[in-house]
């Protein structure tokens, strides 16, 4: 039986565009997410508190993570300075985001792809000094809101540089939720030969309804690590009203009923989605939050 | 290039649980749906006007269909009497619904599966006399809200009887939106050997988020006919707040970007979804209605 490891990203990718919520509310959400059985959680990001005020409490949140020794926590960074702050806060798994498209990279971090790639060795060195691992999170892998479709060679070139720099894991992200199964397979086929035995994960948004279909296509292509978000929390600032990350509970439902082994319990994931809805104070796009599990 | 024929079912499966809307509003929706380029439309149902008041105007609507000679219209029936009314109204493509689970069949039409199956020859005869074709729409193929998972042998037995009675097409429906790709493949593998060259279509709901993934799994398994609904109009009375049919515009987006040929234009499908939202007066679950097409 295939096992798929799910990383819940509601705490970071979910909350980042929300109105900032108090640390206590975040910890309630974290508690509910951990209770689902999930083994990996993206806890926060060490990025500009001005640009992302919702995650300005990253060091405070990081200080609470030791309460859950069974869970592997990661934090996203966008610069060497962020990596230093993350390591100083005790984070031992860093995600460094590099957009494969220049337009998004400039809008997101103020530098183009090549410049962002050029910082990978420094990030790896900072992490190594702090005893942390590094995942390269490749953003806008399929499409860019500014540049249109991303040539797969741009993605390959980021992955190549990351592998050469000795990173520990690769993640490919459909940042604006435009991928579909056939395009997922195409990209995965082109990058798998580059990464050897490094773990590869995929991160999909459900913005155009195809997020779960894309995630399943990735699993069929051999990917065993997927990001998802409690309640589907998380949107995209470029698509107002659009749904966000694929919902953890919907993903777990699909995988479980497809005979794939997952650590997350559907009912507890629905409960975490309820907590997510409560702490952000608005409806979430999760299907199971509305419909519930099927009768078994 | 694979071609997939889409049938838009918003006019019937979409509107059936809505508050009844005036014929003029329905015709505006029909006009918008036809303008998408779709070649097949489920126009209405000839069922009890007491049980389904939203479709009580079926004969009036049927009288308008001749305005669109390029579109193949079908209507759903649940009894020989309904079939007679449909034929009398000029419908030349009848869908007779038979639930594979007894619980849903009894709740839906007041008779169990075997009894509903027993009426197939009479329906075929009525259709033949009126120059109409017959599709058997098998409901609750994966799960029943009352009986739980549907044994695939129950589905096979309905399909066997339909083929023996000389029907023209088979459709399998995930009535309550619980299917996932692996379960879709399992059922299709078991029924394909029974139907020879008869056209086979699939009908999915997105109630648990997996509708598009299931539809794509069906296409990968060789199915070239899919039902979907403008705007994702249509819910399920057993899952309040749950999303309805898979949205035509979301399906077309996924298929188009997967390199599959479809007759429906994405932009016009989004426009039809807007009209659907306007005529029913509430939000719809469509992803593209919120997010729009991707930049190309």
Can you walk through the features of this model?
- The structure is a homodimer of 296-residue chains.
- Helices cover 42% and strands 16% of the residues of chain A.
- The longest helix of chain A has 15 residues, at 181-195.
- In chain A, strand 8, helix 9 (181-195) and strand 9 form a beta-alpha-beta unit.
- An eight-stranded parallel barrel of chain A has the order 1-2-3-4-5-8-9-10, surrounded by six helices. In chain A, strands 6-7 form a two-stranded antiparallel sheet.
- In chain A, helix 2 (23-34) packs antiparallel against helix 12, helix 4 (80-88) packs parallel to helix 7 (120-129) and helix 11 (248-257) packs antiparallel against helix 12 (266-280).
- Chain A is α/β, with parallel strands linked by helices and 296 residues long.
- The first copy, chain A, has a single domain (5-291), classed as TIM Barrel.
- Chain A has 13 helices and ten strands.
- Chain A is globular, with a radius of gyration of 17 Å.
- The first copy, chain A, starts with a strand and ends in a 5-residue tail after the last helix.
- The interface between A and B is large, with 43 and 42 residues.
């Amino acid at each position: 039986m295939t096992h798929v490891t799910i990383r819940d990203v509601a705490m970071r990718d979910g909350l980042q565009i929300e109105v900032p919520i108090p640390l206590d509310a975040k910890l309630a959400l974290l508690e509910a997410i951990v209770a689902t059985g999930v083994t990996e959680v993206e806890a926060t990001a060490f990025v500009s508190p001005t640009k992302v005020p919702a995650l300005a409490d990253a060091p405070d949140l990081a200080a609470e993570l030791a309460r859950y020794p069974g869970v592997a926590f990661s934090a996203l960074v966008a610069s060497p300075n962020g990596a230093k702050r993350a390591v100083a806060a005790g984070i031992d798994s860093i995600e460094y985001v590099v957009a494969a498209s220049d337009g998004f990279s400039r809008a997101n971090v103020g530098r183009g792809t090549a410049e962002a790639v050029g910082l990978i060795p420094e990030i790896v060195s900072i992490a190594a000094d702090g005893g942390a691992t590094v995942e390269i999170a490749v953003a806008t892998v399929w499409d860019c809101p500014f540049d249109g479709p991303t040539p797969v060679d741009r993605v390959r070139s980021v992955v190549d540089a990351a592998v050469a720099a000795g990173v520990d894991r690769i993640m490919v992200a459909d940042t604006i939720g435009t991928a579909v199964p056939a395009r997922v397979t195409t990209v995965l086929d082109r990058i798998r030969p580059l990464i050897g035995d490094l773990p590869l994960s995929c991160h999909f948004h459900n913005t155009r309804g195809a997020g779960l279909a894309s995630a399943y296509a990735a699993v069929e292509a051999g990917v065993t690590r997927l990001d998802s978000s409690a309640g589907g929390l998380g949107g995209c600032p470029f698509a107002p009203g659009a749904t966000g990350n694929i919902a953890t509970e919907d993903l777990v439902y699909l995988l479980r009923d497809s005979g794939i082994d997952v650590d997350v319990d559907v009912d507890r994931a629905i409960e975490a989605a309820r907590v997510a809805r409560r702490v952000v104070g608005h409806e979430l796009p999760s299907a199971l939050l509305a419909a519930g599990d099927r009768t078994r």
